Amino acid sequence: MPIEELTPTRRPVPDSRFGDAFLLDLEVVGVEEMAARVRSITVASTDLLGFHFKAGQDLTIEFPDGSRTVRRRYTIRRADPAAGTANLEFEIHSGGGVAARWAADAKVGSRLEAIGPRGKITVLSESGSHLFVADDSAMPAAFAMLESLSPDATATAVLVTSHGPDSRPGPLSSADTRLLWVEETEVPGAIGGLDLRRGSAAYVMGERNLVLSSVNALVAAGVDRDGVASKAYWRRDQPNAAHGEPARD
Question: How far apart are CA 99 and CA 24, in angstroms?
Fold first, then answer.
């Protein structure tokens, strides 16, 4: 049956903690090697027909881990609600967790269960100036948000990676965008060297210690603390908890 004749089948999550998210049954329909360490996986489902989300939001996905399943959150990099598809990006590296191991073996026909859309950090459209600080884990969110900016917006992205521009292809943004590829030790200097405007919207995402130090550096450089949205994606000292978030101290 042609996709335009199908009806969305997603179901609301029967748990108020997930807000307006839906239960999603997904099937892998495409796998692309974007870079040496990054796989783009396209999933499809009638659950994704007419699926509305904001740039920067994600899916909470269940991955097999032995006799149990664990949840991990992955950004909706791009989506086509008319076709019922979405793209997810996975870091593939030695010693990776359950999601990386699944992605390394994923093939057309592989299936996933997910909940979405999730996430509160999205573009502040009322701001004309935007600053992003993101490590490899957060680049899909930063790039999705950059691509959603209007052509008259300006944006700077401090991209924290040991792989430089080889980390992955950059965003296709219509905004006036500047990308700074830096090592983690270079982040304070990169932030200190920026011409930061009062009223700029800032988004800081990635490893917990990187997020904490970057937020402090931005505030010290003159960015309003209320204008900084931050999210820790992972912790260097321990794996994320089974619900998909970094464990609290």
Answer: 17
The topology (CATH level 3) of 129-234 is Rossmann fold (3.40.50)
Residue 151: both structure tokens together: 């052509």
Residues 6+ apart with CB under 8 A from 15: none
- Cα distances (angstroms) measured from residue 201 to each of 62, 87, 94, 125, 204: 32, 26, 35, 9, 10
Domain ranges of the chain: 3-118, 129-234
**Which of the pair, 157 or 8, is modelled with greater confidence?**
157
Whether 58 and 118 have beta carbons less than 8 Å apart is answered as yes
pLDDT tens across 197-223, in order? Answer: 777 899 999 999 999 999 999 999 888
In CATH terms, is domain 3-118 a member of 3.40.50.300? no
Task: Evaluate whether 20 touches 118 at the Cβ level (below 8 Å).
Answer: no
Secondary structure E strands in the chain: 11-12, 22-35, 38-44, 58-65, 68-75, 78-80, 85-91, 111-118, 129-135, 154-160, 176-182, 201-207, 228-234
Q: 72 and 98 in contact (C-beta within 8 Å)? A: yes
Give the β-pairing of 58-65 and 11-12: unpaired
